Amino acid sequence: MRDALVKVRGLKMYFPIHTGLFRRHTGDVKAVDDISFDIQPGETLGLVGESGCGKSTVGRALIRLYEPTAGTVTIAGDEITTLPPEALRKKRPQMQMVFQDPQASLNPRMTLAQIIGEPLVEHSGLSKAAQLDRIYELMDQVGLNRRFANRYPHEFSGGQRQRIGIARALALNPKFIVCDEPIAALDVSIQAQVVNLLEDLQDRLGLTYLFISHDLSMVRHIADRVAVMYLGRIVELSPRDDLYARPLHPYAEALLSAVPEADPENQGQRIILKGDVPSPANPPKGCAFCTRCPRAFDLCRSTRPVLTEVEPGRQVACHLFSTPSGAQAPATINLQQGVTS
User: How far apart are CA 252 and CA 235, in angstroms?
Assistant: First the structure.
């Protein structure tokens, strides 16, 4: 296996809670709570989970749009979290981001050419003529007509605006791109076009993606491996085909049961979770999912499970797969199916 392009170890992202007249620090929202994973060169890692689980926060912390509370992030051999400002600025061309809302992420006062060319002005040192040539080249790559170069964002459709964001992200030939729900704000007919564009660019340019989405069907199409998040923690990390064929963690199983199948006869039984997601400011003591898990037992409520490899290439944070001897576990645990009886 090649060295990982992105290495994340023990990443935490806490947002402080201030209350009272004197705005005292009385707690933290644990948006990302101690996660670790690797992304190989040329790979697409899908990051899925319900709204509020911390997916977008992970993406922003990875490229230091947020300052991580703890942990390390290594991209192409450089430890990002400790780089001083000038060194971080020089590192920026290697790591870029495509944002969720194509309307909000583009400056309404700048033309298409100015938006795509801004990274070139800041980092490349190219002449005006060379910058324009590069802008046209990027527009061709993402399927935008060169005649649109002097138009403003409001003159484009949602799909076209997202293509502008992708072109801007590609301007400096990055190695790693965080795609933060790049299709969430688009019509279904446009979503496939944008995902196919991302795949085509990855094949031609050798890009590495972290693809954040709540659309499990689209993640199945584009990702090589999938990490499932719940309440700021990764509960399962598996190859795509293995996860969709046989999810191991109870939450991943419930999440995938909600994905509609084209053939109704192949639609499995829907798993309905009871209760609400706990507050990230006051998560459960043990497993984050223990308050809603139909298979939870005493150990789940007292001890936090560790993300552990239980099968080749498959990691799960669940006591059903790592119950120590002597613990009060369910009567029978079928590790192959991940169910109790």
Answer: 8
Interior/surface letters 179-199, b for 16+ CB within 10 angstroms, e for the rest: bbbbbebbeeebbebbbebbe
β-bridge mates for residue 13, sequence order? 32
- Count of CB atoms within 10 A of residue 109's CB? 8
Two structure tokens written together for 332: 């029978």
Q: Tell me whether residue 169 is exposed, middle or buried, using C-beta atoms within 10 angstroms of its C-beta: 0 to 12, 13 to 18, 19 or more.
A: buried
pLDDT digits (tens, 9 = 90+) for 94-138: 999 999 888 889 999 999 999 999 999 999 888 999 999 999 999
Residue 176, CA distances (Å) to 42, 208, 312 in order: 9, 5, 26
> Do 62 and 72 contact (CB within 8 A), yes or no?
no
Helix 158-170 to helix 128-142 angle, to the nearest 10 degrees? 130
Outline where 73-180 has alpha helix (H).
85-91, 112-123, 128-142, 158-170
* pLDDT tens profile 17-41: 999 888 999 999 999 999 999 999 9
Model pLDDT for residues 241-283, shown as the tens digit of each residue = 999 999 999 999 999 888 777 666 666 677 888 888 888 988 8
Q: Which residues are CB-neighbours of 171 under 8 A, at least 6 positions away?
A: 116, 117, 119, 120, 134, 138
In whole angstroms, give the CA distance from residue 238 to residue 329.
Answer: 24
CA distance 76 to 89: 15
Per-residue burial over 207-226, b if 16 or more Cβ lie within 10 Å, else e, is bbbbbbbbbbebbbebbbbb
pTM of the entire structure?
A: 0.88
Q: Helix, strand, or coil here: 69? A: coil
Q: Rounded to the nearest 10 degrees, what angle do helices 128-142 and 112-123 cross at?
A: 120
Location of structure tokens 């169910």: 339
- Pairwise CA distance, residues 335 & 341, whole Å: 11
